[in-house]
Amino acid sequence: MAIISDDEGLEKRIKKNPIVKSETIEYDNTFESSIRPKDFDSYIGQTSLKETLKIILEAAKKRNKPLDHMLFYGPPGLGKTTIAGVIASQMGVEIKITSAPALERPRDIIGILMSLKGGEILFIDEIHRLNKVAEEILYPAMEDFTLDMTTGKTQTAKTLRIPLPKFTLIGATTKAGELSSPLRDRFGMIHRLEFYTIDELAQVVQRTAKILEIDITEEGAKAIAKRSRGTPRIANRLVKRVSDFAIVKYDGKINSEVANESLDILKIDEFGLDNTDRALLNLIIEKYDGGPVGVETIAAALSEDVRTIEDVCEPYLLQAGLLQRTPRGRKVSPEGYRHLGKNIPSLQTRLFDTED
Ligand code: ADE
Q1: Ligand 1: which residue has its CA nearest to atom 9?
Q2: What is the DSSP secondary structure assignment for residue 102, as one 8-state letter?
Q3: What is the Cα 129 distance to its own chain's centre?
Q4: Domains of the chain (ranges plus CATH)?
């Protein structure tokens, strides 16, 4: 399991075509695009973000000016790409979607910038992975809407300033801390997306079930929501998986028993942890006395890559209080021991009380 992009599959589509236009994504028949909300009313959760955005959007419309550049960060699957799409459709503008790893060569970013029209949104996923050259091309583009290009050799070099239309850059990242500060400083708005509550996820599940014509009770939706790790992308995936079970093993309708039984069979426990999460906690407990242990060691022992551990597994384990991050590595918390039904060693208990 190698995580490449926040939006699975997006990077592959982008590698083929560095600019994936919004139409391509919408008409692209993927499961995610078919259920993606298109306006603020159908976008559930992230209430404070939506309220802030509504004001920013209205002000921009009244001033007849493009939106400020925005940076969204947070764990994968919380709706960073989706909210960018909502912003574009609420503003009635096009959105061009790409990802930093697809912008390897200067001409990739130059090509995209030159293809933009006034007011359009450029969405760059995984913006923390942008290389230095691409970043330096972006600075004047973001600040002065110009493309500064140098042509010729050192002594005869000429700088060309090409004006660009006023566009809005929306960056998304799972790692805001890895963004260089000059890039971070050029965003007018920086917002962290939060994990969703069970009630919000239950609403996401019901909305998706309705679109996909899946019969589900309120309790069934709540049972799925509880095991979705605060993440709508996971909730949406689980609705489909549980619906498959409901059709094959039951009468097609999802109630709480059907949901719980199906998720047990899928080995998704009542905290939403899957085999990899449990293997990670087990490894630290069994092989490293509960930790601390470095993430590279964990990744190698589980045959996973470090980014999958850091971006996919850890954020929720940390938020759920099952894992702790210390300067010397990761430790399983007393709650993590309890969750796996393991005894907490007494020395371990004392170590938890000491600050690293
Ligand atoms: N599907 C994925 N994220 C969603 C959200 N925030 N609201 C509604 N449906 C979604």
Answers
A1: 204
A2: G
A3: 14
A4: 3-192 (3.40.50.300), 198-265 (1.10.8.60), 275-342 (1.10.10.10)
Q: Which residues line ligand 1 (CB under 6 A)?
A: 35, 37, 42-45, 79, 82, 204, 207, 232, 236
The residue assigned the tokens 């890039």 is 183
pLDDT of residue 15: 53
Contact indicator for 9, 157 with CB cutoff of 8 Å: no
CB 254 within 8 A of CB 246: yes
Phi, psi of 18 (to 5 degrees): -55, -25
Identify the pLDDT of residue 248.
97
Q: Which residues of the chain have pLDDT under 50?
A: 1-8, 21-28, 355-356
List active site positions: 80-81, 125, 174, 233
CA distance 174 to 349: 32
Q: Which atom of ligand 1 is nearest to the CA of 46?
A: 6
Report the alpha-carbon distance of residue 56 to residue 246 in Å, rounded. Answer: 44
Query: Measured in Å, how far apart are the chain's first and last C-alpha atoms?
Result: 32
DSSP codes, 295-316: HHHHHHHHT--HHIIIIIIHHH
Max Cα-Cα span within the chain: 77
Neighbours of 233 (CB within 10 A): 20
pLDDT score for 9: 54
Phi, psi of 109 (to 5 degrees): -70, -40
Predicted confidence at residue 153, as pLDDT, reads 75
pLDDT for the residue numbered 30: 72
> Could you tell me the CA-to-CA distances from 307 to 74, 175, 220 in Å, in that order?
14, 11, 33
The number of the ligand 1 atom at minimal distance from the alpha carbon of 83 is 6
- The CA distance from 334 to 322, in Å, is 7
186 alpha carbon – ligand 1 mean position (Å) = 28
Task: Report the pLDDT value the prediction gives residue 217, as an integer from 0 to 100.
Answer: 98
Q: Which two tokens stand for residue 202?
A: 């239950």
Ramachandran region, residue 329 (left: φ > 0; alpha: ψ -120 to 50; beta: rest) = left
Q: Is the pTM for the entire model greater than 0.85?
A: yes
Residues 347 and 86: their CA atoms lie apart, in Å, by 51
pLDDT reported for residue 152? 77
